[in-house]
Amino acid sequence: MTEPNAYLALCTHTHLFPGARCRLQGMPRPAAFAAALEPIEVHLRFSDGTAAAAELHPDTPTGPTLTVASYTTAAGTPIDDSTWTVKGIAQKQDEVELTIGTPNRP
User: Fold this and answer.
1) How far is CA 60 from CA 8, 13, 22, in A?
2) Whose CA is closest to 71, among 41, 105, 46?
3) DSSP, residue by residue, 70-92
4) Is the C or the N end of the chain the one with fewer CB within 10 Å?
5) Are 10 and 25 within 8 A, CB to CB?
6) How many helices (H) and strands (E) does the chain have?
């Protein structure tokens, strides 16, 4: 279920990996957000219709990161909770596209 303050992000695949892209929907000022990130809650919607809660953290020692809660794909594959670097942030029309970088491993 989407959190009331979370922004929907449509992802191009069933899971995240380096190079995957997700587009944030409904940003009030996408250009300003892309230029100066703020921490936000995100509701990731994957290409198979599954979803996961996430948080975008702009100021970490490695740069922006996306922390994703565990979820199960529509095919039944469990995906553990994870944190990913965000290697690209760009305005695309009225959306903000996040390009996923590498996973942060403990």
Assistant:
1) 22, 26, 20
2) 46
3) -EE-TTS-EE--EEEEEEEEEEE
4) C
5) yes
6) 1, 9
